[in-house]
Amino acid sequence: MTVRVLIADDHSVVREGLRMFLGRDPDIAIVGEAGDGEEAVRLAHQLHPDVILMDVLMPIMDGIAATAALRRELPETEVIALTSVLEGATVIDAVRAGAIGYLLKDTQAAELRSAIKAAAAGQVQLSPQASASLVRHVQSPPPTEALTERETEVLRLLSQGLSNKEIAQHLQIVEDTVKVHVRHILSKLGVQSRTQAILCAMRLGLIKIEPA
């Protein structure tokens, strides 16, 4: 399956570089480019990409606001924050907005291509630095509806970066059942994405993400 990708970055040289080395992968198709968050949202509605590479700092509408809008309006499209910013608050804001991944711009080309394909399959993609930042900034848990034992197990597997299919194989259940568990997890935790669920679970002490 070819992964359709939209690149959103306010620097044309970055967009050109991403298009060049991502274009070498036959499983990735660059369907469009945006120079700001507002344009990214508009093009996403027109092009329906599988994954958006979203810079965080952009004019008109920043990447975090654009990500939040996309999660509300196009929940089937996954967003990877691709940025040079590694402030703890920025990482958490991007995750809260619904980004499935947070990678730095110095990520190697092969790693980025793999991350894009994994994100398209619903796998959380956090750089080791972003994971470490999340761990450092986790606060005390808020009250929430209790997860069942099976839902907690599914959440732990999500935190390990497994896709629905891989979780189904691990638990020896059908993939549709995993999807139902994921929906219940998101509803109980009051979040919109897998990445948000993992951050919330860290706060609740249900899981731990050890930085690489």
In a nutshell, what does this entry contain?
The chain has helices at residues 12-22, 37-47, 63-73, 88-97, 109-120, 128-137, 149-159, 164-171, 175-189, 194-204, and strands at residues 3-8, 28-34, 51-54, 78-83, 101-104, 125-126.
Chart the SSEs and their pairings.
Elements: E1 3-8, H1 12-22, E2 28-34, H2 37-47, E3 51-54, H3 63-73, E4 78-83, H4 88-97, E5 101-104, H5 109-120, E6 125-126, H6 128-137, H7 149-159, H8 164-171, H9 175-189, H10 194-204
Parallel strand pairs: 1-2, 1-3, 3-4, 4-5, 5-6
Helix pairs in contact: 2-3, 3-4, 4-6, 7-9, 7-10, 8-9, 9-10
Descriptors for this entry?
212 residues, Arc Repressor Mutant, subunit A, single chain, 6 strands, 52% helix, Rossmann fold
Query: What separation lies between the terminal Cα atoms?
Result: 30 Å
Profile the largest sheet. 6 strands, parallel
Shape: globular
Strand content: 5-15%
Helix proportion range: 40-55%
Q: Going across the major beta sheet, what is the strand order?
A: 2-1-3-4-5-6
* Mean pLDDT across every amino acid position: 84
Query: Which CATH first-tier class of the largest domain would you pick?
Result: Alpha Beta
**CATH architecture type of the largest domain:** 3-Layer(aba) Sandwich
Tell me about this structure.
There is one protein chain. The protein has 212 residues and is of the alpha/beta class. It folds into 2 domains: 3-136, Rossmann fold; 140-204, Orthogonal Bundle (Arc Repressor Mutant, subunit A), CATH 1.10.10.10. The chain is 52% helix and 14% strand. It has 10 helices and 6 strands; from the N terminus they run βαβαβαβαβαβααααα. The protein has helices spanning 12-22, 37-47, 63-73, 88-97, 109-120, 128-137, 149-159, 164-171, 175-189, 194-204, and strands at residues 3-8, 28-34, 51-54, 78-83, 101-104, 125-126. The protein has a 6-stranded parallel beta sheet, sandwiched between helices. Helix 9 packs across helix 10 (194-204). The radius of gyration is 16 Å and the shape is globular. The model has no long low-confidence stretch (mean pLDDT 84).
